[in-house]
């Protein structure tokens, strides 16, 4: 069965039916694969942060900031300011000092964010205190 044939079929349901019919005609069987849950980007980023920040109080403070800033979405972009990533760096390209993969790698963003919080505030807990008082950090 050609791809162009499937493209000509009007709806996805018709395309699936046509593909199943063609497969059956060719003596093949189409089977549904079991559903696989995609790994959560948020949970994997949180696991990385836990490894990088073993102290529970510091991790919890870091986590609260990230939850408020990006919801643990490493591709979060603030449409008005352009802040980017888990920690909403402004500009996002500042995170390149932690690695060239800063746009896509949560570990790089976490490293940069942790370094930022430690250098500017002394710790993630102190950064969280500042965030609570000001609504930003």
TrEMBL record:
<dbReference type="Pfam" id="PF01464">
    <property type="entry name" value="SLT"/>
</dbReference>
<feature type="domain" description="Transglycosylase SLT">
    <location>
        <begin position="59"/>
        <end position="126"/>
    </location>
</feature>
<dbReference type="InterPro" id="IPR008258">
    <property type="entry name" value="Transglycosylase_SLT_dom_1"/>
</dbReference>
<dbReference type="InterPro" id="IPR023346">
    <property type="entry name" value="Lysozyme-like_dom_sf"/>
</dbReference>
<keyword id="KW-0732">Signal</keyword>
<feature type="signal peptide">
    <location>
        <begin position="1"/>
        <end position="37"/>
    </location>
</feature>
<protein>
    <recommendedName>
        <fullName>Transglycosylase SLT domain-containing protein</fullName>
    </recommendedName>
</protein>
């Amino acid at each position: 069965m050609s791809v162009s044939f499937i493209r000509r079929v009007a709806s996805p349901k018709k395309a699936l039916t046509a593909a199943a019919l063609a497969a059956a005609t060719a003596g093949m069987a189409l089977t549904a694969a079991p559903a696989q849950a995609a790994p959560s980007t948020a949970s994997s980023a949180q696991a990385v942060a836990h490894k990088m920040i073993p102290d529970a109080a510091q991790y919890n403070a870091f986590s609260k900031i990230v939850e408020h800033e990006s919801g643990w979405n490493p591709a979060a972009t603030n449409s008005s300011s352009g802040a980017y990533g888990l920690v909403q760096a402004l500009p996002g390209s500042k995170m390149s000092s932690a690695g060239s993969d800063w746009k896509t790698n949560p570990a790089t963003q976490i490293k940069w964010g942790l370094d930022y919080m430690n250098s500017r505030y002394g710790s993630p807990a102190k950064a969280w205190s500042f965030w609570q008082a000001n609504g930003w950090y």
